[in-house]
Amino acid sequence: MRPDDLDAIRRASEPKLARLKSDVAACGSALVAFSAGVDSTFVLAVAREVLGAGAVALTAHSPSVPQAERAEARALAARLGARHLEVESHEQDDPRYLANGADRCYFCKSELYRLCERAARDAGLAAILDGFNADDRRDHRPGHQAALERRIRSPLAEAGLGKDEVRAWSEAYGLPTWDKPQMACLASRIPYGTPVTAERLAQVERAEAGLRALGLRDFRVRHHGDIGRVEVGEGELEAAFARRAALVEAVKAAGFRLAVLDLEPFRSGRLNALAGIALPVVEG
Predict the structure, then answer these.
(1) Across-strand partners of 37?
(2) Would the pTM of this model clear 0.85, i.e. be above it?
(3) Is there a contact between 172 and 10 (Cβ–Cβ < 8 Å)?
(4) What digits encode the pLDDT tens for the residues 188-201?
(5) Active site: which residues (predicted)?
């Protein structure tokens, strides 16, 4: 987005930001489910602004979280001066999660919020906040059902802030995540119905680390057995094609026998559309 676009978005959404701050301040204290993504980083920044030491971050680690994201979460929490709790999550012990149905995220988020509830209780924090934003209501988000069941607050969505607005205000706050590509757990690279295994997750992580080393930012490596299918954002397709030999080498080095570059650009939610999941499906 251009600077003029960012300014316009901020001017139009100032009342939403004011509500966000008011809602978070009213919590008194809060635990932020913090993934180092665009949304949860902004929630943590605002929580630190209005709650001070009463805002605590929690990051859950599992084989579905890339090592690079773990390191970034630590760095961002330190940058914001937030107390940062790190815990291991065990969704991989749940056969319903491993089965990788279209509701996989529900079981993963249920485990995350269970850990958040325990940490918030131990720390005496009054609320738990996530990074679900207003635009997420238009996508297939079974994980949000887990949040609703456990009364996790979604202050961005409650204030009506969508993704572009979160990015615009993140830029104003000086957050390095303001233009970070949208992230999702590594399990999202495995087609529904194909079981999630530690080996498949590690294979995807190695392949994506290799592509990141080539300078790509907005992409996914989809796991199709021996085939690693690479989806790249519209703005990087030309660069990816120009470096296709290195791309193939990186994907094969991760253990795939065949590397393919999808001619359609990457977009979030594409696998849901291919699976025939009707949208919107999220309320609240």
Answers:
(1) none
(2) yes
(3) yes
(4) 999 999 999 999 99
(5) 185
Supply angle C-alpha 151, 153, 154, rounded to 5. Answer: 135
Confidence of residue 271 (pLDDT cuts 50, 70, 90): low
Mean pLDDT across the stretch 34-49? 98
Whether the Cβ atoms of residue 63 and residue 37 lie closer than 8 Å to each other: no
Hey, what are 116's tokens? 């958040």
In this prediction, residue 275 has a pLDDT band, given cuts at 50, 70 and 90, of low
User: Which residue type does 221 have?
Assistant: V
User: Where do runs of H (alpha helix) occur along the chain?
Assistant: 3-12, 14-27, 38-51, 67-79, 95-98, 104-123, 142-149, 155-159, 163-172, 198-213, 237-242, 244-253, 270-274
Fold classification of 3-179 is: Rossmann fold (3.40.50)
Query: Where do you find CATH 3.30.300 in the chain?
Result: 186-267
The catalytic residues are 185
Q: In whole numbers, what is the pLDDT of the chain averaged over residues?
A: 94
For residues 282 and 136, is the Cβ–Cβ distance under 8 A? yes
Model confidence at 280: pLDDT above 70:
no
The CATH T-level fold of domain 186-267 is: GMP Synthetase; Chain A, domain 3 (3.30.300)
Classify residue 77 by burial, with Cβ atoms within 10 Å: 0-12, 13-18, 19+. Answer: buried
